[in-house]
Amino acid sequence: MSHKRKNLLDELNKLAPSEAEKLINQYAKSKNKSVPKSLVITYAHDIEKHLDTVTVSCPYCQSTNIIKKGKIQHGLQRYQCKSCCKKFTKLTNTILEKSPWSWNVWTKVLYEMLHFSSIDLIMNTLINEHYVVELTTPHRKQ
Length: 142
Hints:
three-stranded antiparallel β-sheet
């Protein structure tokens, strides 16, 4: 690895995950390319780091008698309950379970909502900062 590339990676690692994601997305957009799948996996690992502080219990029977059972797409840890035999992840039964959005996008939405931002402002932020597409506004009565 070249010295310049190593220095660049060192600097990138100093950024918060959301800032690194924004920088990478801006670069990809400027080159008219999509973000490589390997980076999506990296973001999933960031989610996993945040969730490591959460005690794992079965979302179906609440047992803590669980084992690791491989990883799902994007590298998220899968578990199996030894009591009820059901498989799950830390995102099972949450709004993030099947979301195509990254952890950073959801935290930005929650931050904006807690600060009473308008739906239009939240949508503009998602489109301009996180490159979320295909958003529609709710129909409003006039």
